[in-house]
């Protein structure tokens, strides 16, 4: 069972069902769950005069070392292949800097790796085996096997229970372990499914004894397990605020999954002007703001912290009203509705562009003048297919045309990789019950 908690530190509190306590002298340390030793460790650091960032890192490190609840640190919750990986985040509420790692393998110090990302890169998140390589290159110990006898036993029992429950959907087989294929394409060949770490996908430079051998147990139960995180907030003596999180992520997650733990604003957020929290709440349009005002509000909040920042946003509500806002440059976004003969490109040169209302559906909106991508999405949506289908086809067109996609921007090693997301706003958040 996973309980979603909110940590909130601010000057005034709104009463909640639980008792609210009056403000306390500084410093302050708050953590999810009764992770007493972690709070003690953070307290020792912050009362000694160190920063809020130092304190949250020390507190979360203690939880990793103690394997809090069996869901944090090395030896904790295994993934679908039986391997334990780490997600962690640290955020500095004074500078608004963020560092995080996700699905990190072979390195025991999740929160310390996140701090290295924050302090020594211009990025906020590094994932997977590349996060491991980065952490080791910056001085953390590794590679190390993060599994424990307890985590492997948990995985073996789960396998013996036909890998139930799991996080797969719309695949076959439904009631047993993989390999999996699409449910509407049972003939999909096995080579189309991802190989497990046991099949030799580790980096060639990793020692052989670090290769995770999943094949030694063919089948495994399900026991009560958790999908929890330590989320810690600290206000130091100077009033500086920081947050940190560390977790193994969801037990029996699909390998490579990035959860909410390492995402700023999803798992935790800190701002010296307001406080710190373990999650974000409903935002402007949910509160009734029109897109024009909501977009301008979102941009202005960032601009208050970063007067020189360059960025933009567009917003679209359920009634088809759309608007854009930008800061530091001129922004364009593309729209197609039934009242338009073709794609229209809107230019925003001030904090918020003019809001426009569409009387008919469907509607397609895209950043930048990616006209062909919008045309593709429009043809799909206008033919009666779903918004998801249209969004996927539109973005696929952009990938093929190399607006983005293969052949695009290389990384530090010269390799082009891809990031992508799709969200179904009709279904909203699907809640699932996983053993609890």
UniProtKB/TrEMBL annotation:
Keywords: Autocatalytic cleavage, Signal. The keyword Disulfide bond does not apply. The record marks 228-229 as: Cleavage. Its EC number is 3.4.19.5. GO terms for molecular function: beta-aspartyl-peptidase activity; N4-(beta-N-acetylglucosaminyl)-L-asparaginase activity. The active site is at residue 229. CDD domains: Glycosylasparaginase. It comes from the Eukaryota. GO terms for cellular component: cytoplasm. It holds the Pfam family Asparaginase_2. InterPro entries: Ntn_hydrolases_N, Peptidase_T2. Residues 1-20 form the signal peptide. It catalyses: Cleavage of a beta-linked Asp residue from the N-terminus of a polypeptide. Heterotetramer of two alpha and two beta chains arranged as a dimer of alpha/beta heterodimers. This is beta-aspartyl-peptidase. It comes from Dendrobium chrysotoxum (Orchid).
